[in-house]
Amino acid sequence: MAEKMIPTTDGKLHVYYSEPPQKGADWIFFLHGYPDSHQTFSYQIEHLKNRYGIIAMDMPGVAESEPPQSRAGYHIENLLPRLNQVMDDIAGNKTPLHLVGHDWGAIILWVFICHPLYAKRVKSYTAISGPHPAMARKNLIDKLSSLEPAKMNEAIRQALMSTYIFFFQTPFVPEFVWRAAPSFVWKNTMRRGGVPSYDPIYELSDHEILAQVIHPINLYRELVQGMPIDLPERIEIPVQVIIPNHDFAISPQIYDNLTDYVSYLTVQSLEANHWVHRERPDAVNRFLDEFLAKHS
After folding, report:
1. CB within 8 A of 265, min separation 6: which ones?
2. 3-class DSSP string for the chain
3. Which is it for the CA torsion 164, 248, 201, 13, positive or negative?
4. In this structure, what CATH number is given to the domain that contains residue 82?
């Protein structure tokens, strides 16, 4: 994989990429979540790089990617043009791509494919362990207001699973916790999320961990305190959603209203936890193979 720093409207982003192995082959753009880096997709990149062009950037403020100049730079709407600039720089400004996101990467790319300016460059989208923020919000509100005990219980369960989001709203405290015990917090988070004990991702140094977890906490602050994300119109891009049935952070029921918004939807469920692409890489790679081939 080659790498380069790409200037964008709000700082440089560190990007790893490989050209398509043959002329006319498609590109795939990978976007990781929190508290990850692009390395979270190592199994998928290795599996696909001999058939597709690959773009895998580190989020703003992760590793060598520069953080935004202000916290507002972490609002999803402000991140979209930066992602588009990366795609333009590597693949060309008229090249359609397949998108693959996990966790926060999935959340951001949901909004990307709903934006009329950017949707036209997307061939397909695979979301792993991450819902559209406004669709998830609507799901919870609808279930709570239904007055049906089963649906209300689902909404309450998801709210309880999301309490960590409100912890991240506190100033300084999340950063202090990470800096006080980076290796302990990192390994505990990976274990809770289902990452197998033999996974090399556990071997990150304290310096590497801190380089990817401090600045992006502001993603959570902008999600709650920034301008709300609007519900999308009908999504006509082919979408695949990979749902781990035992996700410690996101319940499978949060995706219940997808068909209200997505016209061409493929849903894959796996007996796995949040980092399903590292816990069950062969299954996730198979889903990607089939979906990408169908829409290439």
Report:
1. 239, 240, 241, 258, 259
2. CEEEEEEEECEEEEEEEECCCCCCCCEEEEECCCCCCHHHHHHHHHHHCCCCEEEEECCCCCCCCCCCCCHHHHCHHHHHHHHHHHHHHHHCCCCCEEEEEECHHHHHHHHHHHCHHHHCCEEEEEEECCCCHHHHHHHHHHHHHCCCHHHHHHHHHHHHHCHHHHHCCCCCHHHHHHHHCHHHHHHHHHHHCCCCCCCHHHHCCHHHHHHHHCCCHHHHHHHHHCCCCCCCCCECCCEEEEEECCCCCCCHHHHCCHHHCECCEEEEEECCCCCHHHHCHHHHHHHHHHHHHHCC
3. negative
4. 3.40.50.1820
What single-letter amino acid sits at 81?
P
Report yes or no on whether pTM surpasses 0.85: yes
How is residue 55 written in tokens?
A: 């773009």
Domain tally, the chain: 1
Pairing mode, if any, of strands 27-31 and 53-57? parallel
- Neighbour tally for 88: CB within 10 Å: 15
Q: In this structure, what token pair is assigned to residue 173?
A: 């405290």
Residue with tokens 């990781």: 32
pLDDT, tens digit (0-9, with 9 covering 90-100), for 141-200: 999 999 999 999 999 999 999 999 999 999 999 999 999 999 999 999 999 999 999 999
Owning domain of residue 258? 2-294
Amino acid at 272: A
CB 182 within 8 A of CB 209: yes
56-114 tens-digit pLDDT: 999 999 999 999 999 999 999 999 999 999 999 999 988 999 999 999 999 999 999 99
CA of residue 243 relative to chain centroid, distance: 13
